[in-house]
Amino acid sequence: MTKTKKRCSWAEGHELHIAYHDAEWGDPVHDDRLLFEMLNLEGAQAGLSWITILKKREGYRKAFAGFDAKKVAKFDEKRRAALALDAGIVRHKGKIDAVVENAKALLVLQKEFASFDRYVWSFVGGKTIVCGGKNVPIDEAKALSKDLKKRGFKFVGPTTVYAFMQAVGMVDDHSPDCFKASGWCARRIISYTKKVPCAGSAVSSEGASSGSGSGCVSPSGESA
To answer: How far apart are CA 99 and CA 156, in angstroms?
Structure first.
């Protein structure tokens, strides 16, 4: 009998979700073009479902020159207006404009930090935060969001940025029983005898973890 792989619950139910989860989600990304693509796709998702974006992913790559920032930064109003009629992407003027403005901001940022990769990963010390806040933006996401906005990036709120960090492996938020879960997180669940916040979870001034309800569980099976 073939053993069925256990995945994060969100990944079940659609072949595109499964393929994306198994091949990409949570795997560390250090390629500037792909990082730029994922940041903009997460921004495009705002108010929509991720499956909608996955279905349009190839449309986005075609519409935005393979997410080549140098090319996208040159899109003029005529080009942007044409994209607003493109059924292959989300036809939202604000989101279309955001990709172009983000490309311009990225080019400036790359001159300062040499690469987008070096810049974004500096917010997690160059290492993946294991079992983070489980959809609750952690301090690192809030800091990155704030700095991106300051640099002129659009559609980069804390929730969007945290989803981006999960996608590109800056945060490993695979469910503990997922076949891609970190062994460290799984061992931690077995080892601890009381509830503790996930590594990297933001702690409020009152001392409560923002990772509450994260899905990292105590031995009793309750959410930590």
So the answer is: 11
